[in-house]
């Protein structure tokens, strides 16, 4: 397709063109896609956009991508992502579309201008929440001219598997939109569903845009598909420090981990996560093999890989989390009446059972025969675990620090572990750990260093805020820092206590509010502290403070409710305005 000459000729002076060239030459493919979406959003807000499309397609949040063709003759790919999986799928699809010579733009859901729509568990990612609320709300318009496709990414170990994508699919149909192809619901083995869905989406895009001539790319494209993501080629980082930072009296074993990035070229910003590719504990692998009476040395070919069964179970297959598909497959093999009752539709006990058991618990409770090949095919892949980085590279250089809660407990007289946390906690200094960096653009310090920041991070949720405070001190930020931290006991669970006390004394931290829930009869949590300090929190937000929350999903919901109460109390009770106050970022898991 040839665009109109007025659009091909850049409306820039020579100086402006030079500035654009200097900016873009330092950006990778992801940065260029983001910049294009950001610029499009600015243009649309200023009234200088191309004619607004008559229809749009949302992202499937929890990790998802969606695509549609607009009236300007281009394909828009919108994604919402909590962990980065949907972003990778969306970037790959965008590159493939551009490789076909078709016009395309890639937008994160929170940058999508909803005006273009004018013609935890079961919750959307934070960057897609506003768009999802708009589409599912009363203000959503009729969308008869919309052609859309949705790919949902989720985790079938949760009851609300791909629920956001399913809900959006139904809602768009209700609004009159036309489905280009059936929705894809991908589990952790993403490519099993995402790859064929992507091929169908590309074919649909070619068909929808075929009346248009070929677009000449702005820069030569040597490869249509981006290089493999970093998680597929992890760096072997040397373990420098593995130190327990809770006392022996604590019911929690929390580790401070320091890893060397020397020679990796890896860079991160405060708020980013570090992905760890773990191995399952040897004792757990042995228990699975013994229970099923299988030979770990038997060779299994699956998905173009041939490995001994023990290697599959150690490095490639998930054993510490149960998923519904495997539970259903095992139920068919077992035929046990109690298991069939548990699997009955609508049984509320199933979700609780799934959340508390591992694969070995299922195999031991309801014996069944499995052939090695069938077992490998039925189990989910073992995927990297993400940990918020607890350091600033400006302070620690070629290192990355983590704060990791080691999961280890007893069930039925046997030890159970968390795959990644046990992998990390059981490593010794000098060991190599496969890692990669996962960007988190939604969880960034304010660009204006004079802005105040409020950080709410109980337990290991405090990790990124250690990096925040280090970064702000390193750059001499003028803004104030306020930390809310909570854990069970002051004497045994006050993570980084000496560091926070030094930060208060040196002026790197202006306020510190603590909630140790088990040290008093009436248990106190960070959300209560937030309410108690409500007047000051509201004043900080009114003066431009950014607020950050990191930690468990349940805590995030409680803090969110407390925040709405605080703001509604101090702005006259306007709860809707409360939801929009401040600059608010969450990293919950």
Structure in words:
The chain has 589 residues and is α/β, with parallel strands linked by helices. The chain has four domains: 28-209, Rossmann fold; 230-278 and 384-438, Translation factors (Elongation Factor Tu (Ef-tu), domain 3); 282-378, NADPH-cytochrome p450 Reductase, Chain A, domain 3, CATH 1.20.990; 453-588, 3-Layer(aba) Sandwich (Rossmann fold). It is built from 23 helices and 21 strands. Strands 1, 2, 3, 4, 5 and 6 form a six-stranded mixed beta sheet that branches. The protein has a six-stranded antiparallel beta sheet with strand order 12-9-16-7-8-13, with helices on one face. Strands 19-18-17-20-21 form a five-stranded parallel beta sheet, with helices on both faces. The longest helix has 20 residues, at 190-209. It is globular, with a radius of gyration of 25 Å.
Write the layout of secondary structure elements.
Layout: H1 5-8, H2 14-24, H3 29-45, E1 63-69, E2 75-81, H4 85-99, E3 104-108, H5 129-136, E4 147-153, H6 163-174, E5 178-179, E6 184-186, H7 190-209, E7 235-244, E8 254-260, E9 273-276, H8 282-292, E10 299-302, E11 305-308, H9 309-316, H10 324-334, H11 337-342, H12 349-356, H13 359-365, H14 372-378, E12 385-388, H15 393-396, E13 399-405, E14 408-411, E15 414-417, H16 419-425, E16 432-438, E17 453-456, H17 463-474, E18 481-487, H18 490-493, H19 497-506, E19 511-516, H20 526-532, H21 534-542, E20 546-551, H22 553-570, H23 575-579, E21 583-588
Parallel strand pairs: 2-3, 4-5, 4-6, 17-18, 17-20, 18-19, 20-21
Antiparallel strand pairs: 1-2, 1-4, 7-8, 7-16, 8-13, 9-12, 9-16, 10-11, 14-15
Helix pairs in contact: 4-7, 8-13, 20-22, 21-22
């Amino acid at each position: 397709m040839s665009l109109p000459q007025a659009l091909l000729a850049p409306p820039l002076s020579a100086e402006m063109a030079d500035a654009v060239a200097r900016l873009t030459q330092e950006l990778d493919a992801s940065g260029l896609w983001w910049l294009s979406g950001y610029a499009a959003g600015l243009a649309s807000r200023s009234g200088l956009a191309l004619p607004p499309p008559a229809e749009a397609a949302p992202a499937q949040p929890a990790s998802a991508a969606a695509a549609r063709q607009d009236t300007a003759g281009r394909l828009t790919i919108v994604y919402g992502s909590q962990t980065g999986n949907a972003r990778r799928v969306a970037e790959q699809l965008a590159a493939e579309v551009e490789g076909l010579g078709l016009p395309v733009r890639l937008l994160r859901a929170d940058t999508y201008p909803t005006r273009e729509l004018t013609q935890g568990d079961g919750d959307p990612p934070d960057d897609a929440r506003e768009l999802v609320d708009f589409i599912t709300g009363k203000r959503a318009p009729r969308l008869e001219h919309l052609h859309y496709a949705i790919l949902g990414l989720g985790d079938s170990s949760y009851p609300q598997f791909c629920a956001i994508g399913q809900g959006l699919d139904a809602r768009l149909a209700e609004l009159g939109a036309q489905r280009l192809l059936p929705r894809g619901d991908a589990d952790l083995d993403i490519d099993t569903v995402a790859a064929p869905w992507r091929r169908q989406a590309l074919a649909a895009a070619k068909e929808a845009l075929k009346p248009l001539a070929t677009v000449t790319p702005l820069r030569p494209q040597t490869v249509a598909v981006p290089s493999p993501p970093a998680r597929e080629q992890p760096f072997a980082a040397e373990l420098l420090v593995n130190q327990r930072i809770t006392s022996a009296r604590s019911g929690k074993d929390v580790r401070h981990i320091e890893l060397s990035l020397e020679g990796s070229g890896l860079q991160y910003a405060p708020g980013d996560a570090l992905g760890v590719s773990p191995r399952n504990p040897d004792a757990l692998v042995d228990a699975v093999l013994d229970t099923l009476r299988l030979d770990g040395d038997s060779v299994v070919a699956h998905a173009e890989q041939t490995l001994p069964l023990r290697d599959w179970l150690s490095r490639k297959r998930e054993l510490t989390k149960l998923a519904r598909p495997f539970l259903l497959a095992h139920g068919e093999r077992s035929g046990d009446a109690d298991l069939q009752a548990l699997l009955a539709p609508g049984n509320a006990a199933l979700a609780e059972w799934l959340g508390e058991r591992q694969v070995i618990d299922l195999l031991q409770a309801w014996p069944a025969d499995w052939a090695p090949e069938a077992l490998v095919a039925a189990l989910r892949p073992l995927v990297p675990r993400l940990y918020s980085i607890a350091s600033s590279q400006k302070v620690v250089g070629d290192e990355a620090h983590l704060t990791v809660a080691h999961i280890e407990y007893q069930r039925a007289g046997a030890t159970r572990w968390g795959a990644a946390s046990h992998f990390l906690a059981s490593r010794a200094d000098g060991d190599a750990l496969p890692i990669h960096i996962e960007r988190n653009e939604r969880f960034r310090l304010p660009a204006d260093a004079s802005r105040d920041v409020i950080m709410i991070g109980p337990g290991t949720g405090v990790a990124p805020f250690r990096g925040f405070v280090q970064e702000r001190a390193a750059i001499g930020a003028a803004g104030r820092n306020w930390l809310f931290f909570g854990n069970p006991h002051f004497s045994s669970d006050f993570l980084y206590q000496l560091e926070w006390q030094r930060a208060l004394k040196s002026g790197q931290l202006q306020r510190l509010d603590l909630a140790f829930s088990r040290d008093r009869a009436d248990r106190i949590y960070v959300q209560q502290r937030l309410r108690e300090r409500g007047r000051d929190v509201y004043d900080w937000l009114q003066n431009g403070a950014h607020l950050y929350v990191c930690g468990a999903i349940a805590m995030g919901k409680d803090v969110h409710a407390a925040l709405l109460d605080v703001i509604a109390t101090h702005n006259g009770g306007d709860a809707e305005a409360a939801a929009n106050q401040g600059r608010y970022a969450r990293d919950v898991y």
